[in-house]
Write a structure and sequence with these properties.
Length: 508
Amino acid sequence: MLREIMASQHHTPSPLPLSHWERGVWVRERNLRDNLRIPAGAQTSEFLRIVRSTASGASSTTTRRRFVPDLIRLVFMNSRQRRSQVSFRVAVIGGGAAGYFGAIACAEQHENVEVTIFEGTRQPLYKVGISGGGRCNITHHCFEPEVLAKGYPRGSRELLGAFRRFQPRDTVAWFARRGATLKAEEDGRMFPVTDLSATIIDCLQKSAANAGVVVRTGARVVSVRRIDDMARSQIELEFKDGERLRFDRVLLATGSSPQGYKFAEMLGHKIVPCVPSLFTFSIKDPWLTQLSGLSFPAVRLTLLTEGKKRLEQTGPVLVTHWGLSGPAVLKLSAFGARQLFASRYQADLLVNWISDHDVNSLLAEFHAYREQHPKRVVMTGSLLPLPRRFWERIVSLADVDKSVTWSHCTRAAMKQIATELTEGRFRIVGKGEFKDEFVTCGGVDLREVDFRTMESRICPGLFFAGEILDIDGITGGYNFQSAWTTGWIAGRSMGMERMRKFCDSPVQ
Ligand SMILES: Cc1cc2nc3c(=O)[nH]c(=O)nc-3n(C[C@H](O)[C@H](O)[C@H](O)COP(=O)(O)OP(=O)(O)OC[C@H]3O[C@@H](n4cnc5c(N)ncnc54)[C@H](O)[C@@H]3O)c2cc1C
């Protein structure tokens, strides 16, 4: 390969001697392939070490340089030199959002680390591609770690510290630095300005290649085990074709794949049982489902599951032909995921369709309205900003005839209308599907992971990131943010010299 590069140099005014290559050559990234005549398809990282110009002006080399965004330094190393430079080898199992982010962070931060992603399928970053309806809702526009952490029914305490190190503001800057600009929508969801998840996939793949990360697809890991000998401790991966490879550090980023949980268990971890999160509520009530299609901007929902504490959420709700959906329902399903699973998705739901009122405040409004508009017909004269079809249903529930005016509306009828509007009771009989962003809660027990590094407290050298952890967020970009944050921290830590010696802790 060296000959190939050197041979191609005769096109440049002065061919560079090998010693020069070994010291390194600064070139503009965009001219890389032309300058070096690197065959299309070949990965520069296979034979060149790429050292980026850094913001501080000093790359990890002795040469001090001004920061030029696309200036990179190429250092040729023969395989012997390369081996002697690599201080440890890192394997990332899983080529999803968390795996890519972890691998890139590790390779960019630490030169002497060889990072390989092993992806079981032929299509890395598959979920990034289908997420957000093909637009990829990459994060949430919330730059306060304390507020952001509240969007995680499981993992909020652990993520708080992590978000102080890498939060959505950093995600936005990370992608912008690499050419993928993000935008925020009114509800806080953030997408690439192109509205295409391919932009994010492209950005991650290019960043990985530039950082020298090797990606092996179709490389399904089937088992993992820790190997301790006198010299060093490593983790051995076995692949479906029987190949075995040993690594100094391993990042488990297998999402919600059962195999990933099995690997964590093999290395001594406890798995919190997985149950679905983010789903809609099935309610078999013709009164409700006949109103399908109506939406309400601010509904307060209270979930009553037998023997469990009441859970409450307020937000937009949509009536569907099978029950209720919308952001408030999804949020409540996430916070109530475990108790609803335990009750087999049977529970009572109190619905306040106008969340800024309760029965008494609404009754007071009705009385005042009656004073002012005694001749108005109740059925057609609503004082509330509610869909007409819905108001008519509520009024008919209180047995108020079509022609009754406000002055003839009884106290009991008014009270019933107020109660139906603020304390409507429905029976949840099952869980519906929310295909946009399906996540499970459950996974690696968070108590067994050190969130300062994302390293296992049980098996040193093993790291975790993404959905494999018992973390899940509400809808709106929270789940990807947790993958970016945990991946970034794991990546930065994996390349560091040992904080504890491998051999210090016995195999569990
Ligand atoms: C339809 C859909 C839409 C979504 N939309 C959004 C959204 O808009 N915003 C948001 O925040 N979240 C969204 N999510 C959730 C989000 O996709 C996940 O939280 C996120 O992908 C988790 O990233 P991860 O890297 O941990 O796992 P994954 O993305 O699942 O990646 C894990 C990878 O590991 C590989 N793997 C598993 N086992 C092995 C093995 N044994 N060997 C080798 N490789 C293996 C898998 O093939 C996979 O590529 C959506 C989810 C779905 C299903």
